[in-house]
Amino acid sequence: MALFHRALNPPLADWSGRRAWIVGASSGIGRATASALHGLGAQVIVSARDGAALRDFVHGHPGSLALPLDVTNAQAVRDAAVAARRIAAGPLDLVLYCAGHYRPLRATDFELAEAQRHLDVNYGGVLHLLDAVLPMLLAAGHGHLSLVGSVAGYRGLPMSLAYGPTKAALHNLAENLYLDLHAHGLGVSIINPGFVQTPLTAQNSFKMPALITADEAARHMLRGWAKGRFEMNFPRRFTRWLRLLRCLPDAWYFSAVRRATGA
Ligand SMILES: NC(=O)c1ccc[n+]([C@@H]2O[C@H](COP(=O)([O-])OP(=O)(O)OC[C@H]3O[C@@H](n4cnc5c(N)ncnc54)[C@H](OP(=O)(O)O)[C@@H]3O)[C@@H](O)[C@H]2O)c1
Question: How far is residue 92's CA from residue 56's CA, in Å, rounded to a whole number?
């Protein structure tokens, strides 16, 4: 049992004086997490496209800094990483990728541009971030890279044709990063939330089970970092069932999803 509860990463519990860069921090989970980290004494750098929302965050969180960027622009991400490193008074302790794009999509109404947009923001943006921060994290031999995936990446789900595969890719990417970076002293984690009340899920017309607030999601993440978790999934009352479904044979899985969602 001890094997399952072993900290896989250097635990991050005391945030006082730590430096965190959060990409995708203008709203929702990213903003709530940036706010929680600031409240615990971290120096927070916030990025996203919406400069006004970032400035608003900085105004309400003295000492934090805004670096607006579009994650689909590799050079913009590189420039922001250099600026983040310069602004921070030391090496970055946490780099959190929380940017995300979601539109419900089914194979019966396939839209190439929409599918590619998901790939560009949810996966391509992470590659841009890796290109920008890996050299500096490896040189420092210090820091933690966290990617926000989703339980939608566990297995196929209705309306998740464009979104789900990008999140599945992030989980695989995080496992690869862990294997490569752990020996260099770097932490890596993948965060798989269930339903969180944010602008991203506001477009869902169905009743979202076990819906939590962005502040609750931030608290789950803080607990996960403190315990040195590799994967964080929450709320457990919802995600434990999805983790179980992940192990089902295909025929049972498809039948269970059809029954649960009516798809
Ligand atoms: N809410 C949920 O139930 C849920 C569940 C599982 C996983 N997630 C994941 O959690 C993460 C945060 O989502 P959220 O629910 O908090 O939604 P959200 O409030 O819409 O946040 C999405 C963030 O991504 C940023 N973003 C989107 N496109 C960007 C781009 N091209 N360049 C830079 N930043 C960009 C947005 O900022 P700008 O628009 O200002 O650029 C915003 O800050 C996403 O990865 C999402 O997939 C959410």
Answer: 23
